[in-house]
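not sure who needs this but someone in the group chat was asking about Chromosome partition protein Smc from Ethanoligenens harbinense so here u go. i didnt clean anything up, its just raw.
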Amino acid sequence: MYLKSLTIQGFKSFPDKTVLTFGPGITAVVGPNGSGKSNISDAIRWVLGEMSVKSLRGGKMEDVIFGGTPVRRPLGYAEVSLTVDNSDHALPVESEEVTVTRRYYRSGESEYRLGGAQVRLRDIYELFMDTGLGHDGYAVISQGRIAEIVGARSEDRREIFEEAAGIAKFRFRKAEAERRLASTEENLVRLRDILSELEARVGPLKEQAEKAKRYLTLAEEKRTLEVGLWLHLLDVRREELRAGENKLEIARARHDELERKLDTVERTIDEAYMQGQKAAAEADRLRGEAAAREQEAVQCEAQAALCEGDAARADRTRAEVEEEHARNERSGSEDESGLAALQTELNEKQDALVGLRETLEACECDVRALTEEGDAQAAKTREASARLAQVRARLAGLGQRKSAAQAAAESAAARVEEIGLSAADRERRREQAATMLVDAQARLVKARETVQALENAVQGCTLKQDARRQKLAKEQERVRALSLRAGERAQRAAMLAEMEKNLEGFAHSVKLVVRESRRGSLRGILGPVSQLLSAPAEVAVAVETALGASAQHIVVENEENAKDAIRFLQRAEGGRATFLPLTSVRGGLLDAREIAGCAGYVGIASELVSFEERFREVAEHLLGRTVVARDLDSAVTMAKRFRYRFRIVTLDGQQVNAGGSLTGGSRRAGAGLVSRQAEITRLEEEARVLQAQLAEAEQAERRAKESLAAVEAEANGARGEQARAKEAAIRLEGEEKRLAEQADLLGADMRSLEEERRACMDKTAALRAQAQAVEEQMAACEQEAEQAEQALAACGVEGEALAAKREEQTARLTDIRLRQLGGEKDVQAVKQRIEALEAHRSEKKAHAETLALRMHTLEEEAREARERAQAQTAQAEVLRAKAADCRREAEQRAGEREDLERRTVELRAGSRALAEEKENMSRELARLEERKVTLQNSYDALIAKLWEEYELTRSQAEKEVPRVERPDEAEKRLNTLRHDIKALGSVNLAAIDEYREVEERYTFMKTQTDDVERSKAELETLIRGLTGEMRAQFSKKFAEINGHFASIFVELFGGGRAWLELTDPQDVLGCGIEIHVQPPGKIIKNLASLSGGEQAFVAIALYFALLKVRPSPFCVLDEIEAALDEQNVVRYASYLRRLCGSTQFIVITHRRGTMDEADILYGVTMQDQGVSKLLTLHLDELMERLGLEQKRG
């Protein structure tokens, strides 16, 4: 057997159909990294049934399907086919060529085919088991996995050794046998339990069956006597009912006549009452209208009083305006006097101004004469001044020298000041820098606080995220819970519906009839009563109680259908059932007119259920004379009132029977057949409500997800702000450093300025000494200048005298001019006062006209107000007259009402007499009806008892049972039979059939138990045989592997020694396997101390030993020699060639030494991104291309 071909399509990087053919010897697959070489070994491992996604270098199984490239679309499935030559029939298949195919779709579906036929994965495993190609075999060594043989734990190495020893199939069969043995033991335990239970039941059931047979004999005789006595009582009750019906008809006629008379009187009373009410209402209306007229009259009088008040106020206001007008006229006379005085004052001031102008002209002439004298004196002064200027010129030269020295000294002093200013500036700048540094530090602290705050915000967002996640989880849990509850309700409803469909809870006879009807053997079967009537949930229990056993009665079309069903039950020995033919059943409906007013009354039972119209007689027959009450107290009160004439049931299932007996107690909810229908409806409604809540919860879940996404976005925003704040803090740290450096530089500048200041101070002292010398020379020159100044001073005195006179005249001239200017301003002020007075006279004139108009208006308003007051007074008189008319008419209507009330009193007296007579007749009628109901109930109870006890109608009973001739003797015999039956105690009628069934089942289960015990013994024998065979074969093959490993190790390593050892020789099939090696010249105590290449070479030696003992038909080796050096690669490849006689090798490699030994070379390239392509080269062509000499003959 060898590998013929491999077909890949859609697997990983091979989207196109790719076929690789393999021949004997070595086939090498080469190509650059990432080209898809290892995907070929993955494909072989995958088609052989590999299920570990990790072993296939993926994250999920879908990853094996070609995922697409930028230019190619993804594929929908991956398929790999492996064809094996089976001409030697190494595989247990008749075909000489076996093709295994595996296909996987993106939807998750997977299929396996063997020779075109679809098979299971287990079939693939079993096919290749013990061939080295199995699931735990060594046919495919993936990339980087060779060293795991050495590095694995001793217990984990067993799988590959067991595959090589050929015991994998035995282990599989043993595991299957152990699984079957465990299942057999479980079955045996259950069978023994059942058998013990059946053994405990057989004995008691036998005794119960014998007692049941005795009971049936006595019960049949009791039935005959009871039915005969009941038929006798039915005849008696029928006669009593006929007599009571006649009396009842007479009483009803008289009661109806009294009721008609009473209705006529009541209508008359009602008419009189309505007329009286109308008269009273009219009187009340007229009184109200009179009161309204009186009110309107009062309002008119009040309005007239208001108008009189308005007229008086207008008169008072007019008097005030007249007084103001008089004051205005007096003020005008005063203004005329003031204007004349101002005109006189203006004339006087103008005359004084003319005199001042004449004085001004004379003073100006004097000033001009004094000016001419002063000019002559000025010429003398200029001559004296010229002499003084010469002296001062010399003094100025000396002064310049002094000034130069002083200037230089001042310059130096100024430089000192500048240095001081510069130093102050530097100090200011340094302080500013220090302030800025402090500010930067503060901002840095703030920025760090901001960073911390944002860190807290991020943490807060994280907490909010956690809260939102918790809320989302809560909503998801709520969705799950609602989904579960809705599923439970729907499942419960479906289960009850299935029970209803299968008639669970019905009698065996009812089930037989309905099922036979469904098969078409019986016709006219309409169904059990409980399925034809439906009741709301709130009254379901009451209806269930009212129906009792009648719920299982079967409704049929006619009597013939009922007889056919009864004959069927007789033939089938299926028990007894009650049938209600639609053609014969007649119902009676209780008169609910008087009952309806009772407290706690709910309704007649037949009116509380729903049904098809054709079943009305059935419903009224079973429920028409049963009343439903709210609770037991209401039921008892109602029953007492109507003297226990009919049956009453409560909503919780308690019952007050006709005649006064009470039936009740606890009741299991939903246990009844009618309740089951209501329960199904309720559960379906709850399921719908829960589905709606589930939709709301899913919407809340979506909102929670959206909220979580929003919080996550907020958290991301906060993290962004935090990053920006950190950047700002970093910038502030840089600014802090810069300001600190600036402060240091300014301090250095201040120190250099201080040195310059000291130099300038020294220079200033020298220049000041030079200025002192020049100052002494200037003192002599100043004495000469002093003499010249005295001469100049004499000239100055004369000039000053002239100047004083001129200044005096100039001052007088200035004073005259100021007085002239003041006079002009006084004239202007008087003119302005005259103009203002004229304007005030005009305003007063206009105000006088306004006051006159206001007086006229107020006079008109007073006149109009008095006219309105007179009109309102007249209107009030008219309204009072109308009010008096309304009061008189209201008195008339009140009299009419009193007359009607007197008539109503008389009519009511007659009505009470009729009502009393009617009440007496009603009591008599009720007594008669109660008597009739009692008789009817007794009759119905006998009929019902006849049916309920023996499922006989009266006609059937008359046909089947003979009349009782001597009722007294029959009653005595019946009491004896009852005593005998009671002496039997509790009787299990089902024990007869149950005993027969249990006995048959016991015999069957005993046979089954014996068979299972024999199977268990056979399985234990098989397991012991397999274990012994596995132990012997594994020990033999392990010794062979150990020997081959020792020799191959020496051959590959060129010396040294190696051996394998079982960790527990006593437990050959369960212990671990240790590997011991000693390369040439080394002592190795632990395999981990070997280099990577040595570990790989040890694993290769062991791998070759396994192949020696049990050659695999073909092996796929994926770069297992990657860790070897060139010399060891050549040894590896050479030994691989030696094994080609028994094994076909497909090697994936990068190493030249391995390629040299290959017979066929496949090159894998990736010309298109993500798509692998194959190139086939035979050895000769490869040699030629690489320029190598052929080394093999």
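also DSSP finds 19 helices and 22 strands in the chain. if thats useful
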